[in-house]
Amino acid sequence: xxxxxxxxxxxxxxxxxxxxxxxxxxxxxxxxxxxxxxxxxxxxxxxxxxxxxxxxxxxxxxxxxxxxxxxxxxx
Length: 75
Prior knowledge:
- This protein is an all-alpha fold.
- The chain is 73% helix and 0% strand.
């Protein structure tokens, strides 16, 4: 996934850098590097975003799952 494809996917999904960092388990800085092309977009992130774009993965479910995982780490 190129930086332009990443930007288009994020825009279509309504995701900002913080959202992408949260759902992919990365830092905002890492996400910024993907957008600039400094670092390549990981294949797992491309697969995740493509699944979301194709309607194969629900954003609401993903948000709940990430929240659940974060709470498990704190507890």
